[in-house]
């Protein structure tokens, strides 16, 4: 398995056709590194890229067919379409100084109409540039996207030499090019509302004998950014006309086609003899280091035996039942308001009908009971034990008045609930739900992953509360009363059905995840985050898999034998 990425990094891949060797290699490399989020925005369903993404359930796959049809050589249609989609998404999610997509689209209207006065002014202004072989493009922060696209198009279509500089980089030395080669150079300047004053003062100092074209992009930054991109497309076309080159069909040489389709070959994986890909992935997740690094300083000699000891315990055990987390384990955290998928339901039913004891430990309340009752056969409901609100209340699935939905907290949590509601940032950023033994915080706007937990922990420290614990799930932060723990579900199962052993499965095994205690048992499997304990809480999924797909694999490996369950390492039945 390759070097793991930082946990908080989200990675996105954009591809119009989803078929070139580089985007496919990038996906395979990234998915093996298991980033916290991997998104794919693709313009063609059924492409090799979309098929790869669909094989990894945790990947966010978004399919949009560009309305302008198939791309030419410079892929202009898909570029504008994808940037417009991303802009709309950001405007919908974040407040860009009051900017909306409707207002942005209105600002862009003159740029899109080739008969508009704005486009005519641009064309007239840029005409003198093409008499010189080098074009220097000056830009600000919002227009940088158009400048970068111009450089790409001029180079790929062989339209001429093109240099880029933002206005202050130009001041810090790039202006010297004009002192030596001013007679060969023209300037194209993007001007936006946010940098207009600096741009005008800069351009006023440029020697008057150098051709200069101003591309004015009024409006808020989203409109200016998209406008610079539309401007780049038009400018490329005008330069092509002046120089006798069709940028959309510049002619691709034979060696160029061979370069484009050049196989990348197998990339180095840092594999070690007698270590499978799955074992390497498990060790990388546990240690946080790649196999090549671990091998280099002999740490593999510590982790490989630890994995083998855990697998040996798992192989030897005869389980009386299974305790599972819910969100992120039985249901995809992105679809937590939906019922478990049929394949998961089928496996739970199979194990229950074979006599295994099954318990669910969740941070949620009655919604879990209703969802499970909706998909599991009613005859099996008495066989399922559910621990609501992180184990604060435990009842069989057929108990319809569980859990207690009272919105007032117990006496131990009253001061803390009030302090959390009084915290200014939490009041602006999160919704607070009070239950008898649990306070739940859910972000109502985008926040860094750790921010909500940090705020809650700070309030607990400031109030001097010594007993409450704060944990993090895939979608919320839970503050639970003293003595509340998901391990209570396991304790109840032992009291009802015997000492076990029991297999525990969850997704948040690393502290302060809300499965940390549950997955501290001797026979604990994670479908995502693992603890630092080398003796338990391993993730045995193949590289690039996590979440409910891994849960499904674990459940399929459980084979009933004489009323007990054995974990089959040879593969699903």
In short, what is this structure?
40% of the residues lie in helices and 18% in strands.
Helix content: 40-55%
Average pLDDT, rounded to a whole number, is 90
Biggest beta sheet attributes? 6 strands, mixed
DSSP summary, beta strand count: 19
How much of the sequence lies in strands comes to: 15-25%
Number of DSSP helical runs: 21
Measure the end-to-end span. Answer: 26 Å
Helix/strand/pairing category: alpha/beta
Uncertain residue ranges: none
Globally, the shape reads elongated
Compute the gyration radius: what is it?
Answer: 30 Å
Strand order of the largest sheet: 11-10-9-8-16-17
Structure explained in plain terms:
This protein is an alpha/beta fold. 40% of the residues lie in helices and 18% in strands. The protein has helices spanning 21-33, 48-54, 76-93, 101-112, 117-126, 144-156, 167-174, 176-181, 196-203, 221-243, 254-260, 277-287, 291-296, 300-316, 342-353, 366-375, 414-422, 424-429, 451-463, 487-497, 548-557; strands at 10-15, 37-42, 60-63, 134-139, 161-166, 185-192, 212-217, 321-325, 357-361, 384-388, 393-396, 430-435, 438-443, 469-472, 477-480, 502-508, 524-529, 558-561, 564-567. The strands form 5 sheets. The chain has a 6-stranded mixed sheet, with helices on both faces. A 4-stranded parallel sheet has the order 5-4-6-7, with helices on both faces. A 4-stranded antiparallel sheet has the order 12-13-15-14. Helix 5 (117-126) crosses helix 10 (221-243). It is elongated, with a radius of gyration of 30 Å. The chain starts with 9 loop residues before the first strand and ends in a 6-residue tail after the last strand.
